[in-house]
Structures are given as C-alpha cells and as structure tokens.
C-alpha cells in the first residue's frame, strides 16, 4: 500500500522511522512518502496561508500549494483523507477499511484548515481522532496511519489482530507475565492451569467486565466479529 502525506511540517513524521512502521516499509509492505506542501507554493515569499473570506480569526492554508501538491500524487486509485475535528470519528473498523485501499493521500491541515473546495474537488473524507482540537493534522494523520498499518497484510501476525481490543467489540482482557508473584500480587490461578478452554472463558469474562465498566457505550451484550 502506498501512502502520501502532504504537510507543512515534514519533520513531524520522524516517528515513522522507528519500529513496526519502519520494518513494514523496509519489507515493502508499506510505502510512506512525506511531501512538503511548501515546495509547491508559487508565492515568491513561500507563503502558504491566506485570510478567510467573510473574516474571522486565523488564517487558512493557501489553496494553490495544497491543490498542486495533491495533484502531484493523485490518480484514479487514490483516496484522500483530511484529518479534521469536524470529521467522522475514527475507529477500529475505519482503520480496517482504509487498510484495504491501494493509495491513500493525507492532507495535514494547519491554521484554521483548508478551503472547502479542496475537500470537494478531491472527494476527501474528513476524519477526526476525537472530540478535541489539536494544533495541526500531523498527529491525527500519524495516529490514523499507525492504526491502519497494523491491518496491512504481513505487518502483524493474525493472532495479535484477533485478540486485541475492539476486534470482537470488547476491550482486551488483562495480561500477565513473569514473575508469578510481584509486589505480593499473584497472577490469576487459571492462567497457570494450562486449561485453554478455561483460560479463554476467563479472558472473555474479564473483557466483558472491563468493557461494561470502562466503555458501557461499546457494550452491546454480545460480541461481534468484523
Ligand atoms: N486536527 C485538529 N484537531 C483534530 C482532531 N481532533 N482530529 C483530526 N484532525 C484534527
């Protein structure tokens, strides 16, 4: 899968040089290109912001450099994502859907955002990562890319995807490793029993208890597979 990220702050994407995302790129499972929108401005002072029609606080990103930057990477197979607090709230199933795309283009907004016509021209999907406002689209783009990358074939093992939070509509059960007793607290006996059916039952009970307590909004009384 190919991902082009358009940003005024390319340095923000340094974290992608580490760990799982970096390995996925080296293995050729993912290609992530970070593109500087400022390289596309035709303004002699390299300016990339402009005032909003109708007035109001703050500036918008200039239309021309964003338009030309998208055009430089766009083709019929591209899906454009615009991280924005006004978008649909990102979740597990959106991550899975985005991972099926051949080519994603992220437009990282700054200032007060981008001109509405850019969203329309490129049929961009506005995606929010939660009900709060960040200073730019770089962190949301990183969150979305990190999360969808886990569903790109070969990036993670199938088991780790099947057992994690949200994979069955529940939060994940608690996990333990060595030592068996730590600070006077013992690992639950059932996990040492070797009885896989009992362990699975215990984990499901714990996952349900946790979901009901922490995220009652997620708990629908039954589990789902998606
Ligand atoms: N840009 C600023 N805040 C954001 C948010 N919560 N989600 C996505 N993009 C954003």
Report the principal-axis shape.
Answer: elongated
What is the total number of structural domains?
Answer: 2
- Order of SSEs, N→C? EHEEEHEHEHEHHEEH
Identify the CATH homologous superfamily of the largest domain: SPOUT methyltransferase, trefoil knot domain
Percentage of residues in strands: 15-25%
Mean pLDDT equals: 95
CATH topology-level fold name of the largest domain = Alpha/beta knot
Most strands sheet: 5 strands, parallel
What is the radius of gyration computed over CA atoms, rounded to a whole number of angstroms? Answer: 22 Å
Measured between the Cα atoms of the first and last residue, the distance is 21 Å
Helix content: 25-40%
**Unreliable spans:** none
Which structural category do the helix and sheet elements fall into? Answer: alpha/beta
Strand arrangement in the largest pleated sheet? 2-1-6-5-7
Number of strands: 9
Number of helices: 7
**What's the CATH architecture name of the largest domain?**
3-Layer(aba) Sandwich
- CATH class assignment of the largest domain: Alpha Beta
